[in-house]
Amino acid sequence: MIEIADAFRIPGHMIGVTPRTWETEATTGYNSYDKRTGGKADAVERRRFIGASTGAGLAAALPEMKEISAPGQRIGRRTPDELRRRAARLRRLDEILGGGDTYRVYLAEYLSTKRLVKEGIADSETHLSMLSVLAEQAQQAGWAAFDAGKQADAFSLYKASLNAATEAGDNSLAGNALAFLAYQRIDENPQTGLSTAIEACQTAGPQAPQGVRALLNERLAWSYARAGMSKETEKSLHVAEAALGEVSQNPQLEWTSWVDSTELQIMSGRCWTVLDRPLRAVPVLESALSQYDDTQARDKSLYLSWLAESYISAREVEQAALVVGKALELSSGVASVRPRKRLRDVVHKLQAHSDIPEVAEIMERSRVQLT
């Protein structure tokens, strides 16, 4: 297989592979830029460079995908694990890029595996493993579509993931597909989203790996919060926390490895913000956000919007404006619709305080950046 770092021209250390020789050349521009800015790399320019490189590198990777998917090819027993490792490396792109940059990459991976499952030859055990891989890749592509604002594509991919995971007998991935569907539906219909989130936890079951239970229960907490159910929200957050604290001899599934105490703090803060409990939301959000580097621009700008909203609820309007300013700065150049949508909502809530100089300045900046 072509090394992913080579195929997509992305610095190898960012996706967990050994740096290649071309990386020294590729980063020369950053070094010269650093000198002009006193040694500080510009995160926005770096994201734009990597995003452009990802799109350019896609063509280099596609021939390999077609070769893997040759009709009638026998699928080796090691192929599912190889594809999972590949998916794990590509998933790290989501830490620095938005769905607008990654969607084509993830979709190509999914379509390549889908063709291989359809046209390849495999024993029953390998076939089921390939279906699990397909479900995982469909979720990865669906998330990127959702992040890029392609809601119909996201829904279709989540449903495809659910079907593949169910056929494979992979209850954890089936539960996660339902959780993705719940997360997508929550904006349009909180009750439908809540019932789907409950179904997600039931589908995965109490025997699911601890990372899966933590992930699904924190998403259930979000659904409860959106439905205005504070006691149920708190209970689900406690269940997620308990799952994270369990000691297990089994390795954590890679696709849940990003769920940790910091992620749980972020979700807790978001839930308490929605429930209009700023005294509970602000401390956990500030603590969690201190762990985020500015290179994680999409997530950090998105989570800052919840912190700003809680400051508004607490009538700390000047501080809210300051936080929105930082979020606007980070969201510039991010190929994701979600931070801008959230920031529009927060800026709208600030309009009532536009006579305050700090707010007036943010209103002006948002008119330029969010239109």
Write a structural description:
The protein has 371 residues and is an all-alpha fold. Among the domains are: 148 residues; 105 residues. 73% of the residues lie in helices and 0% in strands. It contains 18 helices and no strands. Helix 9 packs antiparallel against helix 10. The longest helix is centred in the N-terminal third of the chain and has 26 residues. The chain is globular. It starts with a helix and ends with a helix.
Short description:
The protein is mainly α and 371 residues long. It has helices spanning 4-8, 21-26, 28-36, 43-68, 79-91, 99-119, 124-147, 151-168, 171-185, 190-204, 210-226, 230-245, 261-274, 278-289, 297-313, 317-331, 338-350, 357-369.
Largest sheet: none
Count of DSSP-assigned helices: 18
Total strands: the figure is 0
Structural class estimated from helices and strands: mainly alpha
- Please tell me what the overall shape is: globular
- Report how far the terminal alpha carbons are from each other: 43 Å
Q: What low-confidence regions span 5 or more consecutive residues with pLDDT below 50? A: 1-41, 54-63
**How much strand content do the residues show?**
under 5%
Radius of gyration: 21 Å
Mean pLDDT: 85
Q: Specify the helix fraction band.
A: over 70%
Instruction: Give the helices and strands as they follow along the chain.
Output: HHHHHHHHHHHHHHHHHH
InterPro entries: TPR-like_helical_dom_sf
Protein name: XRE family transcriptional regulator
